[in-house]
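TICKET: design request
STATUS: open
ATTACHED STRUCTURE:
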C-alpha cells in the first residue's frame, strides 16, 4: 500500500454549519408579513361575502337546471317567468323593481336588458309572458328548439346579470 494515497480511515466527518433561524431578522420583514396576512384576510372576507351574496343566483341555477330536465312539461315552462322575477326581486343592491305585476311590460324587458351583460332577444319579455299566460295548446305547439333557446337565455341571464356592488 502506498503511504502517499490517503486511506478511508483518515476521512473525518465534516462539521455542520450553525443552525439558521427561518424567522425574519429585521422589522421590515415582519411588517411585510403582517401586510400580507391582512391582505389575505380582507380578500378572503370579501370572497366569502360575495359567495353569500350570490346564494340566490346559485339556487336559481339549480332550479333552472331541474326545470330544463323537464322541459317537455308545461308546468316547467310556466315556472320560467316566475323564476326570473324571483331572481330580479332577490338581487342585492338593485333598485326596487316594483311589484311582480308591474314587471310584465316594456319595463320588464328594459330591466332584464339593463342588468344583462349580453344582448337579449328583443321579444324576450313577450316570450316569458307567453309562457306564463298562453293556453296549454300554444305551449305544446312550441318547437323544442325554441324551448331550449328560452332555457339557455334564462340561464345566461341568471349566471351573468349585473348587480351593482
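STATUS: resolved
RESOLUTION: sequence designed for all positions
ATTACHED SEQUENCE:
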Amino acid at each position: 500500500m502506498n503511504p502517499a494515497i490517503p486511506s478511508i480511515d483518515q476521512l473525518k466527518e465534516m462539521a455542520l454549519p450553525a443552525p439558521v433561524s427561518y424567522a425574519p431578522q429585521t422589522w421590515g420583514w415582519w411588517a411585510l408579513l403582517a401586510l400580507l396576512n391582512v391582505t389575505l384576510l380582507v380578500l378572503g372576507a370579501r370572497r366569502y361575502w360575495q359567495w353569500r351574496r350570490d346564494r340566490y343566483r346559485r339556487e336559481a341555477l339549480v332550479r333552472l337546471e331541474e326545470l330544463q330536465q323537464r322541459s317537455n312539461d308545461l308546468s316547467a315552462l310556466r315556472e320560467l317567468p316566475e323564476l326570473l322575477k324571483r331572481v330580479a326581486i332577490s338581487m342585492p343592491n338593485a333598485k326596487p323593481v316594483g311589484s311582480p305585476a308591474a314587471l310584465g311590460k316594456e319595463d320588464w324587458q328594459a330591466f332584464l336588458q339593463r342588468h344583462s351583460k349580453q344582448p337579449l332577444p328583443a321579444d324576450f319579455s313577450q316570450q316569458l309572458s307567453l309562457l306564463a299566460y298562453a293556453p296549454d295548446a300554444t305551449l305544446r305547439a312550441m318547437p323544442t328548439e325554441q324551448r331550449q333557446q328560452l332555457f339557455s337565455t334564462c340561464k345566461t341571464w341568471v349566471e351573468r346579470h349585473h348587480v351593482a356592488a
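CLOSING REMARK: The chain has seven helices and no strands. The radius of gyration is 32 Å.
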